[in-house]
User: Which sequence fits this backbone?
């Protein structure tokens, strides 16, 4: 083999080696990102088979969505869908509202005992309380500006707790805080983020 052909072979080998190393080093970055998971805590007393039927109640602790009832309904729908997919049945919303009105309970200040009492009246073994704890859109700090456009960060925090009507104790807790990039400070950013975060929190509900 002459020197010219040997040099070509060596050059080709190094080209192949370089491409292989590049593909190998990039592999972790092109794999699909794992879906976000909620932070879940479960009581050792919790046995999903004992709780076939749930009542779901959404409480807006931020008081920012009084004029966005559709957003609260979306959150309720996400938890209802998750519960049904996991083998639970769900009490009608109208029944829950009627019981709360009858007991004169303030939704933003419910105790475990009051929730348990409502569960007994509704004839459900547990009530799933969903709380909107935070919803805000703030400017990035340090600030980010691309081609003169400033960017903002929308933060939404949702938690849920399952309370036994018989024991008046918390059986299960799930929570998640999501941060999303936004181009403005519109309330719509938070409205759109709420069902996304709710879906993540609801995914922590165990199957029956």
Assistant:
């Amino acid at each position: 083999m002459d020197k010219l052909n040997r040099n070509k072979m060596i050059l080709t080998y190094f080209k192949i080696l370089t491409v292989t190393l590049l593909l190998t080093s990039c592999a972790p970055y092109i794999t699909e990102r794992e879906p976000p998971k909620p932070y879940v805590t479960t009581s050792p007393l919790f046995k999903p088979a004992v709780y076939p039927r749930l009542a779901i109640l959404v409480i807006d602790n931020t008081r920012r969505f009084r004029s966005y009832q559709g957003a609260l309904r979306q959150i309720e729908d996400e938890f209802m869908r998750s519960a049904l997919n996991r083998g639970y049945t769900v009490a009608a919303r109208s029944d829950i509202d009627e019981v709360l009105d009858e007991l004169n309970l303030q939704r933003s200040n419910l105790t475990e005992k009051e929730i348990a009492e409502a569960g007994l009246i509704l004839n459900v073994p547990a009530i799933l309380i969903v709380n909107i704890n935070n919803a805000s859109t703030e400017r990035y700090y340090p600030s980010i500006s691309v081609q003169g456009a400033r960017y903002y960060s929308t933060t939404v925090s949702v938690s849920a707790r399952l309370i036994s009507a018989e024991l008046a104790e918390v059986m299960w807790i799930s929570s998640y805080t999501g941060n999303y990039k936004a181009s403005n400070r519109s309330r719509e950013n938070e409205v759109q983020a709420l069902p996304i975060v709710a879906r993540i929190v609801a995914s922590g509900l165990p199957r029956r």
